[in-house]
Amino acid sequence: MSEETTSRDDRMRGDKLLCEVFKSPRHDEMYLYVDKRDGLSRVPEALVERFGKPRSTMTLILTPERKMGRASADAVMAAIRDKGFYLQMPPAKDEYLLDLYKTPTEARY
Fold it and tell me: Is the per-residue pLDDT at 86 higher than 90?
């Protein structure tokens, strides 16, 4: 193992991770979490193309105890460790809201 790989593995096994969060300019509420030290280098090119030009929104320290809105910090840290990134998708739309787009509205008197 190279020294760089060893140092990456050591810092990823710890209980803290310096994380940078990027927002997609193409998709509302879609975010990409990466290790700040690696940046986007481990994110597949196809994902970056679909995501759009990433806009850095914040840097934070992740710990297993950290409260997050849509995912557990453990899950985010594990994905970054295994794949090099965590992709947070927009929340699912409620089915009744989707029906409004499928069904024409009728004038009501």
Answer: yes
Those residues whose C-beta lies under 8 Å from the C-beta of residue 27, and which sit 6 or more positions away, are: 51, 52, 90
CA distance 65 to 71: 12
What whole-number distance in Å separates Cα of residue 65 and Cα of residue 58?
A: 19
| Bridge partner list, 86 | 33
Between CA 87 and CA 76 the distance in angstroms is 9
Six token digits for residue 85: 């990134």
Q: What is the pTM of this model?
A: 0.74
Q: How far is CA 82 from CA 13, 26, 39, 95, in A?
A: 11, 26, 15, 33
Angle made by CA atoms 9, 12, 15, in degrees to the nearest 5: 140
Instruction: Using DSSP, state whether 31 is helix, strand or coil.
Output: strand
Give start and end residues of each alpha helix (H) in 1-109: 3-13, 45-51, 73-83, 95-102
The pLDDT of residue 12 is above 60: no
